[in-house]
Amino acid sequence: MIKSALLAMLLACTCSTGVAAAERGADPLESPRWADMRKEMFPASARVVFDDKVKVTAPLTAENAMNVPVSVDASALQDVREVLVFADFNPIVRVVRFEPTGAQPSLGFRIKLQQSTPVRAAVRTGNGNWHVGGTWVNTAGGGCTLPSTGSASPEWQKRLGEVSSRVWPRKEGGERIRLRIIHPIDTGLAAGIPAFFLQDLILTDDKGKALMHIEGFEPIAENPVFTVDVPAARATAAYRVSGRDNNGNAIAAVIEK
Predict the structure, then answer these.
(1) Which of 4, 14, 229, 244 has the most Cβ atoms closer than 10 angstroms to its Cβ?
(2) Confidence of residue 25 (pLDDT cuts 50, 70, 90)
(3) Which pLDDT band holds residue 141 (cuts at 50, 70, 90)?
(4) If you write DSSP's letter for every residue of 4-73 in order, what string do you get?
(5) What is the pLDDT at residue 13?
(6) What value, to the nearest 5°, has the Cα angle with vertex 142 and ends 140 and 145?
């Protein structure tokens, strides 16, 4: 009985220590900015853990700092409520936030990076815990402080908000939607050019039921491309996308197969 009690106490201490270590533990990406990110991105009382179930995929070296492909996949977690993507060393660290209300908890997109940095995804589950994954991306930089290429051309004014799309079946079941929105996207950090970016985007099925809400921030890449996976149970004959940019310009389109 005494041995059993001691063993139980040791196990309890070990589990408690493991949780505490996970919460305050060393950043697996060894970024000197992690402590600042922890304070800025999460409530002080939040439980934040590094979790291999959160997959962030990006090139090890990005040749074009204004157009870096990134994908986030949190489908290994249950009850995902929201995902926040941020880059430690960007002058504007928040990149995109999304809520998978009916779609898979994954998203592909492209971003601007100012310098080499960890790119992270923080996933909040229904119990209030935050699960963090990420990867380093090396780049020559400058992506956030350069003007967009589209801002110098009058062509984007004629096509602003135009949506092109493609839908195809996934071998795992369900469908993949890829959509591109014509928009110059400026961070506001280039001299004389104000911030101009996609702020809200809502993807629904053909009956108007929400599949995903995407909130954009300034470092999203020009003419943003988003890739969304829809489970078989939510696949529909067509999809709708609506939203606006930070200047109130509306975006609306029907995505047909």
Answers:
(1) 229
(2) low
(3) confident
(4) HHHHHHHHHHHHHHHHHHHHHPPPTT--TTHHHHHHHHS-TT--EEE-TTSEEE--SEES-TTSEEEEEE
(5) 36
(6) 175
CA distance 21 to 16: 9
Element (H, E) at 157: helix 155-159
Q: Which two tokens stand for residue 82?
A: 């929201």
Residue 209 and residue 234: Cα distance in Å, rounded? Answer: 9
Distances (CA, A) of 249 to 107, 108, 124, 184, 243: 23, 23, 30, 13, 8
Q: Which residues sit opposite 44 in a β-bridge? A: none
Amino acid code (one letter) for 207? K
Calculate mean pLDDT across residues 96-114. Answer: 98
Pairwise CA distance, residues 174 & 153, whole Å: 39
- What's the whole-model pTM score? 0.89
Q: Which residues pair with 49 in a beta bridge?
A: 131
Positive/negative CA dihedral, 212, 79, 134, 173: negative
Query: Phi then psi for 163, rounded to 5 degrees?
Result: -115, 130
Q: Which amino acid is it at 54?
A: V
Determine how β-strand 198-205 pairs with β-strand 68-73.
Answer: unpaired
- Cα(155)–Cα(174) distance, rounded to whole angstroms? 36
pLDDT at 33 over 80: yes
